[in-house]
Amino acid sequence: MLEAIGNGLYGLIAGFTNLHWSNPIMIVVGLVLLYLGIKKDFEPLLLVPIGFGCILVNIPLAGLMEKEGFLRIIYEAGILTELFPLLIFIGIGAMTDFGPLLENPKIFLLGAAGQFGIFLTLALALALGFTKLEAVSIGVIGACDGPTAIYVTSQYAPHLLGAVSVAAYCYMSLVPIIQPPIMRFFTTEEEKIINMGTVKKSVSKTTRIVFPLVVTVFGGLIAPKGLPLLGTIMLGNLMKESGVVSRLTKASENEIANIVTLLLGISIGATMDGRVFLTPQTLIILALGFLAICLDTACGVLFGKVMKVLSGGKINPLIGAAGISAYPMSARVVQREGQKYNPKNFLLMHAMGANTGGQVGSVMAAAVMLSILKGMGII
Amino acid sequence: MKMDNWTFGITMLVVGMGGTLLTLWILSLIMSLLKKAFPYKKEEEGK
Predict the structure, then answer these.
(1) How many whole angstroms separate alpha carbon A348 and alpha carbon A329?
(2) Tens digits of residue pLDDT in A288-308
(3) Are the CB atoms for A278 and A286 separated by under 8 Å?
(4) Chain A positions in Cβ-Cβ contact with residue B26 (cut-off 8 Å)
(5) b/e map of A36-52 (b: 16 or more CB within 10 Å)?
(6) Is A239 exposed, middle or buried (0-12, 13-18, 19+ CB in 10 A)?
(7) Which alpha helices (DSSP H) does A96-225 contain, by range?
């Protein structure tokens, strides 16, 4: 009788006695993510479910990530199959207006320069002893594009998924803090005040409709391994621009994107079990991710300086910082910085062009990377 | 194919950065051509 009562009481404290030292730390990490999302408004749509998922998975004996645990089911259905990032991409495509980019297609090049950090960080990760596929997954944080980072990492280094996706989303939300000092450092006072004029409306509806088709076919032929990423974002955009499937467009940018974001966030949080997450490797990944975004910004601004020279001083190099995929935060940062030095300067639409170029650029960079890996026989 | 990290890193740097830049440059050219092929007309405003 007493033994039965003892066993029963033990059942009530088993959660406490089975706590691994890393679990309370990770619960605090989860709380910090929730704080950043709720109080600081840093990417709340993702940080709130990620933070909560992190707390859930660090409570012992609940078995949420064990076979048939509900988080494991979501994780296997949407992350391991790569379905969630792709569904999110349809929504992103439906929400993105590529008009400012099409007004000035040369700005596409800034979207390429804004991805250079991916490859530089990849090389650095290799030098630090990560395996090839791990280095690829770490480098892709520099795409500054959560779904792309998740897509690549879940395929080639699933054990790093928690660290990579947390880094990608946290740094994306910190773009307004990370970018300005780098932009100021790499530009002169003269360059900061360059007025690029207003963006003229000069893109026909036909061009807008043909754009996603051209990117899909051409990009897919060059980098077939990245076609799922490219195809889904362009499908969303085609639906938006065609204007004939408004129900599907609205569902993609609202209901589908919302549901998938919730499931994606909570299942990423579920990969943050303290016993596998709290390692020196995670800290290195977070540092490399930060470096990747700094390098992206620096390369974008430096390429902007090149374009300034080539255009005869018509391009303000600040817009190069928007060549990353953090849309539209990065474009807003450029606008704010530009106005600090020249209150009459409106760089927003030019920066939006570079920013949407960065969105295509990040997907294209990942696609190119995967195709090179395939070509080298590594995947 | 066995490849050392050094060769892999350099290849990814050169072909990756070059490939991304080249692809987007070609896309920008195609976009410029498309704009010429399908010019914007004033009547499209308000549609």
Answers:
(1) 11
(2) 999 999 999 999 999 999 999
(3) no
(4) 218
(5) bbeeeebbbebbbbbbb
(6) buried
(7) 99-103, 108-113, 116-127, 132-139, 146-156, 161-173, 175-186, 189-192, 205-222
Interface test with B, best of A140, A145, A368, A370 (most B CBs within 10 A): A368
Chain A: nearest CA to B18, how far in angstroms? Answer: 9
pLDDT digits (tens, 9 = 90+) for A315-353: 999 999 999 988 888 999 999 999 999 888 889 999 999
Chain B residues whose CB is inside 8 A of the A303 CB are none
B33 touches A at CB < 8 Å = no
Tokens, residue A55? 């707390």
**Are residues A144 and A168 in contact, defined by beta-carbon separation less than 8 angstroms?**
yes
pLDDT mean by block of 10 residues, chain B; 47 residues: 82 93 94 91 64
Rounded-to-integer distance, Cα A351 and Cα A108, Å? 11
Asked if the Cβ–Cβ distance from A105 to B35 is below 8 Å, we say yes
- Distance, in Å, from the CA atom of A218 to the CA atom of A368, rounded to the nearest integer, reads 12
Query: What is the rounded distance in angstroms from the CA atom of residue A303 to the CA atom of residue A298?
Result: 8
Polymer length in residues for chain B: 47
Q: What is the ipTM of this complex?
A: 0.90
Closest A-chain CA to B30: A214
Query: Min CA distance, A186 vs chain B (Å)?
Result: 21
Determine the Cα–Cα distance for residues A280 and A205; give it in Å rounded to an integer. Answer: 52
DSSP per-residue codes, A51-104: HHHHHHHTSTT--TTSTT-HHHHHIIIIITT-HHHHHHHHHHHHH---HHHHHS
Taking alpha carbons only, the member of A222, A243, A88, A238 closest to residue A151 is A88
Place of tokens 């709130």: A48
Contact criterion met (CB below 8 Å) for A364 and A223: yes
Query: Do B9 and A222 lie within an 8 Å CB cutoff?
Result: no
Report the amino acid identity of residue A312: G
Query: Which residues contact residue A195 at a Cβ distance below 8 angstroms, ignoring those fewer than 6 apart?
Result: A316, A342, A344, A345
Whole-number Å distance between alpha carbons of A250 and A242? 13
B30 contacts in A (CB within 8 Å)? 214, 218
